[in-house]
Design brief:
The chain has one domain. Helix content is 33%, strand content 17%. It contains three helices and four strands; from the N terminus they run ββαββαα. The chain has helices at 39-54, 83-95, 97-100; strands at residues 15-18, 28-31, 63-67, 70-73. A hairpin with a 2-residue loop joins strand 3 and strand 4 (70-73). Helix 1 packs antiparallel against helix 2 (83-95). Bound molecules: zinc ion. Residues 47, 57, 59, 61, 75-76, 79, 81 line the site of zinc ion (ZN).
Length: 101
């Protein structure tokens, strides 16, 4: 395969690419932290990004990189980076009118 020009596909909506440190030829899509997001949403997304890049979350959860569309991290139950917790935080943020809009 020729690699004359390195073209990177567009990431999924609301996401951007990061490269895991241990896998420099791989990229995974992570959420962009939205403007005006409350702390728990920011923290949750930030932890997912840290997990994707470093291979582990600050909560101690290990990461298994799957493919460009996503990755799996074994977050602790109370970690804001856990999808379930982040979803709750985002739902509460939306219920509050997305930062006062
Ligand atoms: Zn975690």
């Amino acid at each position: 395969m020729k690699r004359k020009k390195h073209t990177v596909p567009e990431p999924p909506p609301g996401k951007e690419w990061v490269t895991p440190k241990r896998m420099p030829d791989t990229r995974v899509a992570v959420f962009v932290i939205p403007d005006g997001a409350p702390d728990d949403v920011r923290e949750g997304i930030a932890r997912q990004r840290i997990a994707a890049v470093d291979g582990a979350c600050p909560c101690g959860g290990a990461v298994y990189v799957l493919d460009a569309e996503g990755f799996w991290c074994e977050h602790e139950d109370d970690c804001p980076g856990l999808d379930r917790n982040l979803l709750v935080a985002m739902r509460e943020w939306r219920a509050s009118g997305w930062a006062g809009r």
